[in-house]
Amino acid sequence: MKNICVLVSGGGTNLQAIIDAQKNGEIKGGKITCVISSKEGVYALERAKNAGIPTVVIPRKNYSDSVSYSKAILAELKKQKADLIVLAGFMTILDKCLTSEYPYQIINVHPALIPSFCGEGFYGLKVHEKALEYGVKVSGATIHFVNEQADAGAIILQGTVDIANNETPDSLQKKIMENVEWKLLPKAISLFCEDRISIKDGKAYVDLK
Ligand code: GAR
After folding, report:
1. Which pLDDT tens digit goes with each residue over 57-113?
2. For residue range 135-157, what is the model confidence (pLDDT) as tens digits?
3. Is the N or the C terminus of the chain less surrounded, counting Cβ atoms within 10 Å?
4. Which of 6, 19, 54, 61 is nearest to 39 (CA)?
5. Which atom of ligand 1 lies closest to the CA of 17?
6. Which helix (H) or strand (E) holds 6?
7. Which is the closest atom of ligand 1 to the Cα of 176?
8. How far is the CA of 79 from the centre of ligand 1 (A)?
9. Which is nearest to 93 in space by CA: 66, 73, 128?
């Protein structure tokens, strides 16, 4: 069984999707062993507690820079003996002192079709505002591995939604979460835990059976 540590910063709907998938037996070969939050008092922590999952809060605001913060998270991940780290609405970019310790072992969900609308500054609702500002007709979400560059690691799964003429950032966020994120994130986690993702020339290939 692989130890899954989930990192969160907010409402935790993606965390809930993983918890629900675990309860339904859809995460094969892995178990959520810890939820780490970058903020105190966020609802994601309640979701973890309700599911009986241990939580740790490491507030980003207590650290002056990304390196010292990443070192603190790294120490906790080592303590937890993490095999897989999932960034589920985690709003802090992690430094390479951490990412280099876990190559192809950190999975992120990004609410757009990478390589569009991604990288530093693109997070949460801002991503959807930018997509609508541009006028794209489809958007979606990307589940990818995390490397030392923001939103640039190997893509594992992507899914799309159509954009309506009267779409708002809020409606687009909801549409992408419900139709793509909450389905593909648990699926990618299970694929990882079942050793069904292989890497070749820096790209991820999924064994869909
Ligand atoms: C989700 O849409 C997730 O894709 C996005 O923030 C939201 C968090 O929701 N993540 C990012 O933008 C990371 N760059 P949640 O806390 O309810 O899961």
Report:
1. 999 999 999 999 999 999 999 999 999 999 999 999 999 999 999 999 999 999 999
2. 999 999 999 999 999 999 999 99
3. C
4. 61
5. 18
6. strand 2-8
7. 2
8. 26
9. 66
Task: Choose the residue to mutate in 109, 143, 144, 174 for probing ligand 1, maximizing ligand atoms within 8 Å of C-beta.
Answer: 109
Provide residues with CB under 6 Å of ligand 1.
10-14, 44, 88-89, 109-111, 123-124, 127, 173, 177, 181
Burial class (CB in 10 A: 0-12, 13-18, 19+), 134: exposed
Q: Which two tokens stand for residue 196?
A: 């069904």
Q: Give the position, in ligand 1's atom list, of the atom nearest the Cα of 89.
A: 8
User: Catalytic residues, which ones?
Assistant: 110
Domain 2-206 has CATH 3.40.50.170: yes
The type of residue at 184 is L
